[in-house]
Amino acid sequence: MKTTLSKLILIPVFLLLISCESIDGSIYTADHPVVTIDRSQVNALNCVYLYNTEKRETGWNNSSATANAIRVLKDQALVAEGNAIVIRDIYSQDEYREGYQIDSAGIYVDVYKCPFNKVKDEN
After folding, report:
1. What are phi and psi of 38, to 5 degrees?
2. H/E element, 113
3. Tens digits of per-residue pLDDT, 82-105?
4. The sheet that has 35-36: what strands, in order across it?
5. Which residue of 6, 56, 107, 115 sits 20 to 30 Å from the alpha carbon of 67, by its own alpha carbon?
6. What is this structure's pTM?
């Protein structure tokens, strides 16, 4: 009886733990219309400077925190009709919230509007 009861409790707990992953992996693999370029490309393409900004985000580790911050900054640039960013600086740090350690990353970027050649679909 105890063994059956413990198995019945273990199954929902196991399912709950598996279902706790809430990250949509497609946001990291999908291409974003805003690209990351460097200063030499800005000069070669004659890009127009729009503004600079900074964002700090948290994540499961430093890499995911950095990816989260870049995604947010690219989304912001898209709203302002920018199509390229140049990363000026990146920093990472550990934060503590309610007794738990959280990885965070901050990124400083410049946002540009560049005259990229757009591929037109003729089909």
Report:
1. -110, 175
2. strand 100-113
3. 999 999 999 998 888 888 888 999
4. 35-36, 84-97, 100-113, 48-59
5. 115
6. 0.71
